[in-house]
Amino acid sequence: MPEMSGIELHDILRIRGHHTPIIFITAFPDEKAHAQALVRGAVCFLSKPFDGDTLSRCLDVALKNNAGESD
């Protein structure tokens, strides 16, 4: 994203009260960004290329977390 990082967008969404589960997908793996995303509550941080099973597991976690918040 040219104007801001995914981490910055995540922070803005949280400040505005949005609690949508977020899965980060990047072509540029970075351990610092990975750690920052997970500490801030991201569901997963995937680096390309990744396999479908990994994405499927992340989506399952995101859906379960989201369902728990709406109870």
Automatic annotation (TrEMBL):
PROSITE patterns: RESPONSE_REGULATORY. The keyword Phosphoprotein applies. It comes from the Bacteria. InterPro entries: Bact_response_regulator, CheY-like_superfamily, Sig_transdc_resp-reg_receiver. Coiled coil: none annotated. Gene3D superfamilies: 3.40.50.2300. The keyword Phosphoprotein applies. Pfam families: Response_reg. One of its GO terms (biological process) is phosphorelay signal transduction system. Keywords: Phosphoprotein. Residues 1-63 form the Response regulatory domain. This is Response regulator receiver protein. It comes from Mesorhizobium delmotii. The lineage of its organism: Bacteria, Pseudomonadati, Pseudomonadota, Alphaproteobacteria, Hyphomicrobiales.
